[in-house]
Every structure is written in C-alpha cells, then in structure tokens.
Amino acid sequence: MSFVVKMNKSQSSSNHNNGMNGKSMNGNAVHHVSVKTHVNPDKMKSNKPRWTVRASEMSKNTLNPIRAIVDGMKLTPNPEKPMIALSIGDPTVFGNLPTDDTVLQAMKEAIDSYKYNGYAPSVGYQKSREAVANFYSRAEAPLESKDVILASGCSQAIELAISVLCNPGDNILVPCPGFSLYKTLAVSMGIQVKLYNLLPEKSWEIDLQHLESLIDEKTACVIVNNPSNPCGSVFTKDHLQKIISVASRNCVPILADEIYGDMVFPGRDFYPMAHLSSDVPILSCGGLAKRWLVPGWRMGWILIYDSNNIFGNEIREGLVKLSQRILGPCTVVQGALESILNNTPMEFYQSTVSFLKSNSEICFSELSTVPGLNPVMPSGAMYIMVGIEMEQFPEFQNDVEFTERLVTEQSVFCLPATAFEYPNFFRIVVTVPEEMMVEACVRIREFCARHYRPHSQDSNDLDQ
Which of 235, 305, 321, 461 could form a disulfide with 282 if both were Cys (CB 3.0 to 4.6 A apart)? Predict the structure, then answer.
C-alpha cells in the first residue's frame, strides 16, 4: 500500500541525507513511501455496521389476551349453517341498533360548520369539556370543565388514567373476570396486575375480603368496572359503598370504568362511584361508544373527582402532559358533543336498554334449561356470562375447546372466558337481532345435547 507523507523543509533535508528521494515544493517535501501492510479480512468484516433493529420491550410486553386466544383457535364454521358471532362487543355489527338521528344530525352540523377541521387543545375544546362537565355534574359530585380530559375513546381514557397513577413496579387491582385491556396496558408499562375475584353466585359482586387482602404499599389504584364487561352485572348502592370503604381504609384511589354507565335494565339503578365517595379520589372513565352506539367515533373522557384535593395539581397536570402525546381526540366529534349530550332523546336510551334486556331474558331463559350450562342473568351492559360444567362434557378439556367446537358444528361463536382469565365460562354479546339470538340458543342447546355426558350418582360414589 502507498501513503503520501508531507514534511517541512528541515525534515526533508534530514530525510534526503538518509537516502530518501523527494522534490521540494515551497519549502516542503512530499515523499511517496511504500509500506508493506497485513490487514486481517475478518477484522475488516467485523468493523462493518450491521442492522440491529429490535422491537421495544414495551411492544414485546403488549399482549391482548382475547386476541392471543382467539387467534390460536381453529375456527372453521359449519358451511351448512350461517355464522352467528356472539363474540364482538360492538353494538353496530348487525345494523339493528343504529344511533339516534339527533346524534347523526349533530355530526353533520359540526362538519358543515367548517369550525372543527384543525387542531384542538390536547385535552379537548373548552366548550366540549364544559358540555361533558355539565352533563355529569351533580350537587354531591360537582364538575367543572377543568375536571374533564377528553380522550380518543374510553380505552385511551383508561390508558391515561393508569399512566398518570402508576410507575413501573407498582401494582393495580383488576376484576376477575374483567376487561382484558386493563392487563394489556398495565403489563406493557411494567405495572403488576393483581386479580380480585368476582362472585357469580352473588351476581358478580366483588369478593371484598379478597380485594382488600391484595392491597400493599405498591398498590397504585383499584379498577372498578360497573356495569361490567364481561359480566353484565350492576352493583347496588350498598355494595359500591363497601368498595369505597375498602379504598378509603387503605388510602388507594379508584379508577372507575363506567363506559356502560346508565345502560341498566328497568328495576336497577346505576350509581356513579364518585357520587357515593366522601374522601376517596376517583378518575371516572366513560365515552360515547356504548350508550350512544358509536364506538368507532372514538370519543371518551376522564372525569376527575377530588373533593378533598388528594390528587392536587400534580395528577391534573400529569393528565394534561400525557394527553399532549396524542394531541386530543377527533375534533369533529368534539364539535358535535354538546348537541349529542343535550339533544339525544330519552326514548333512544330507553329503547336500547329495553332491547338489551329482552335479548338477555331470552338467552337466560333458553340456556337455563340446558343441562350442563349455568347462565348468570345480567342487569345491564351488553353481555351474559354462561358457566360450563366441564366435567359433564368430557370431550373437552376447557372452555376454549368447547367454544371452538361450537363454531365447527353449529357456526355459533361465543368468547371463551379464559380470555378474561376466568375459565369454564363463555361470554355472549346480546346486541344481535332477536331472531338471531333465538337461533343461536337453539344451536347451543343442540350442541350441548350431543356432547353432554352426565356423571351418574353411582360413578360419583365410586369416585369418592
């Protein structure tokens, strides 16, 4: 290999005397020197940059249990029977539950105004936040616009609430069975999830003793979902007060997932948790998705209830900063929000709830008489949970296999409750048209009759 060596005049003279040839240029000398070098080819290869793109730890730790289970199921419907999907918590799927015309008109007017095509404040327009505050404010739990953070659906509201209350290494208490997103969000953020039991024999009330036993110095909040997904349960005022007492004794705030608030059947009442709390600070998450039947519009909110100033400015400021990562929810829906909240007729809400109750009663009545099944009658929301006496269906190891075969033979898809970490149950969504609900129950009955293998009393005695 050749190198060019440049030296000053004195160096050049000295080098010339040592027998090196060179030509002087402006007092400097340039010499061509030949040097034998040995370059290790392996070393050259190791110095070459390599692609090392890796997924983040957060993405690796993000897992939706429903998707993990459903994607692994072998779902091949019976080609001789049309598919009836009772698995998706979307009331718009079958077109039988449209939103009200006043809701659509509010959106049209927002679009036609040309006022909502730009960026809004990350926490939402002031006018929209005022509309939400006015809609939910009560004397026992007053709200102002500063107590409202708008979000891209209730799911994002829950994410913001968890993010502002928890640090990696903290834990949160989550209902079991419960909405799988709580765990999906928490685990991805390095937050431990502790599951507290709900009691099917008590209409899915919380096992309060179990709940309190899980609280420790690292518990950042208790999540309470009422009305419940997947259970369809609605807590009584007395039970809610007992939950609040547990939180109060242990100085733990509550994250109230109330997306199904007021979607309760006649004869039952919905009590927002904040209306019953005198000292426990509460972040209540809600939205338009379910009660107004527009889940795709992605409009949710956090209501900050903190009458004793326990959250103080820090939690509020934290929510504002976290909302700046997303820059707020859809501005057009925000523009329509005041009209949606104030002008939707009461008859629309009542009609929706009446339909859900009727379908729930059909489902419960039909499946209650199916040997091997134990449905739990709901009181609200859009779901009914059905217990499976797995020992009476020896062909199947668990609820996943049971529901998988139900699809194969009867083209009826119910979500196995293992997705909610509650095996040996399945969840039915009751938003389908009535005739479809009836047909699904007939098929489930046929399926169970084919596979039911009751243990005789004699065999039970032998087992003992």
Answer: 305
Q: Where in the chain is the domain with CATH 3.40.640.10?
A: 101-343
Please, where in the chain does CATH 3.90.1150.10 lie? Answer: 70-95+346-463
Model confidence, pTM: 0.87
CATH hierarchy code of domain 70-95+346-463: 3.90.1150.10
d(CA 383, CA 128): 31
> Of 82 and 37, which is predicted with more confidence?
82
**Per residue in 313-367, pLDDT tens?**
999 999 999 999 988 999 999 999 999 999 999 999 999 999 999 999 999 999 9
